[in-house]
UniProtKB/TrEMBL annotation:
Keywords tagged on the record: Amino-acid biosynthesis, Aromatic amino acid biosynthesis, Cobalt, Cytoplasm, Lyase, Metal-binding, NAD, Nucleotide-binding, Zinc
Gene Ontology cellular-component annotations: cytoplasm
Name of the protein in question: 3-dehydroquinate synthase
Organism: Megamonas hypermegale
GO MF term (any one): nucleotide binding
InterPro entries assigned: Dehydroquinate_synthase, DHQ_synth_AroB, DHQ_synth_fam, DHQS/DOIS_N, DHQS_C
Length: 361
């Protein structure tokens, strides 16, 4: 078992990574002053696999947790779905000290966290991520949100969980495509922060894809350490935290333009990273070889480098809804070298449009 701490003063919390975390979960909950009524939010794929098992653990810890099951998929990250969950929380009798527990991938985590942040102006929140993407990224750092028709994650908050419990055994039921999507965010950490980690990914790619225990737990723990390190320095994205958005300006536009159906988030991030690497190359910041090596690494992890069914004009229009856009200027996270990025709002329109054209199939 490994523990990574997210150091945020009185909002600090632990990420517990391991197998069979029943004891850790029970001990943690019994050490809190939670009310008995709780809401365990999960989705239609995860409920039959782990819903009752986790409900029983919560019960053993003294909670009366109602299992609330949302439809699996990005479409559920909506205000309509949030409204239904508020109703279930009220009907089950939750109060201000009642915990909300997210058992699922990033969709469940972002949505449940949004409910926890807003229900009764904020109730305790616990993350139990079940997808690789959620374990390496979305369950850590406190970004919670739902989507708006005009863009991704536009309605949300920064709301930290009280604890994150990652059961590595849950990875066994994860479809292969979801492993790849998680690896999209993992690759991101190498490029933005840690060249050694990037090299580890290259050397150990087969063990990672086969979910070999040592390799996958290192990948998850190192990803959490990097994210915790960044978030601890800049919880609310005043500056540094924007590096975690590497590739996301284009990714979110691609997801929206394809109605969140064609590309998973991590796949869109892969394409978006190629896009910003191309922009960085066109600006003379990096050699073309870094871009082609990135394409090769992503392909090794079964990730796409080009997006279908999008137009340059639509993607270009969407990027202005990005949360890093200020006064009509997009703040781009650009690559300086492997392991180092910088932020720049000074990228000519022509270069952006050329790069977008090159990542569209
Ligand atoms: N808050 C953040 O910091 C942050 C970071 C990255 C991504 N995100 C968000 O996360 C979402 C993507 O997360 P995701 O990739 O986990 O998607 P997801 O939640 O849709 O999960 C992917 C699929 O895998 C299934 N699944 C999850 N765990 C499983 C398991 N153990 N066994 C079998 N099936 C399982 C789900 O039911 C779903 O069908 C996006 O909305 C993205 O914007 C948020
Ligand atoms: O935690 C962060 O900060 C991130 O940017 C992590 C991203 O992987 C994640 O997709 C995030 O939700 C995107 O943030 P947003 O502010 O662009 O919605
Ligand atoms: Zn992301």
């Amino acid at each position: 078992m490994r523990t990574v701490n997210v150091n945020l003063g009185d909002k600090s919390y632990d990420i517990i990574i391991g197998h069979d975390l029943k004891k850790q979960i029970v001990d943690f909950i019994q050490g809190q002053k939670f009310s008995r009524k709780a809401l365990l939010i999960t989705d239609t794929n995860i409920a039959p696999l782990y819903g009752e098992k986790v409900q029983a653990i919560l019960n053993e810890a003294g909670l009366d947790a109602k299992l609330a099951v949302i439809l699996a998929g990005e479409q559920s990250k909506s205000l309509a779905c949030a409204e239904d969950l508020y109703t279930q929380a009220i009907q089950h009798g939750l109060d201000r000290k009642s915990p909300i527990i997210a058992l699922g991938g990033g969709v469940v985590g972002d949505l449940a966290g949004f409910i926890a942040a807003t229900f009764m102006r904020g109730v305790p929140f616990i993350q139990m991520p079940t997808s690789l993407l959620a374990q390496v990224d979305s369950s850590v750092g406190g970004k919670v949100a739902v989507n708006h028709a005009l863009g991704k994650n536009l309605i949300g908050a920064f709301y930290q969980p009280k604890a994150v419990f990652m059961d590595l055994d849950m990875m066994k039921s994860l479809p292969k495509r979801e492993i790849a999507t998680g690896l999209g965010e993992v690759v991101k950490y190498g490029y933005i922060y840690d060249k050694e980690f990037y090299e580890y990914l290259l050397v150990h790619k087969d063990e990672i894809l086969d979910l070999k225990s040592e390799a996958i737990s290192h990948v998850i723990a190192r990803s959490c350490e990097i994210k915790a390190d960044v978030v601890s320095q800049d919880e609310k994205e005043a500056g540094l935290r924007a590096i975690l958005n590497f590739g996301h300006t284009l990714a979110h536009a691609i997801e929206k333009e394809t109605q969140y159906k064609k590309y998973n988030h991590g796949e869109a991030v892969a394409i978006g990273m190629v896009g910003v690497a191309k922009i960085s190359n066109k600006l003379g910041m990096i050699d073309e070889k870094i871009v082609t090596d990135m394409e090769k690494l992503l392909a090794m992890f079964n990730l796409p480098e080009k997006a279908q069914d999008c137009s340059v004009e639509n993607i270009y229009a969407d990027i202005f809804h990005d949360k890093k856009t200020v006064n009509g200027k997009v703040n781009w996270v650009l690559l300086e070298e492997i392991g180092k990025v910088c932020i720049s709002s000074n990228v000519p329109e022509q270069i952006v449009k050329e790069a977008i054209a090159e990542i569209l199939a």
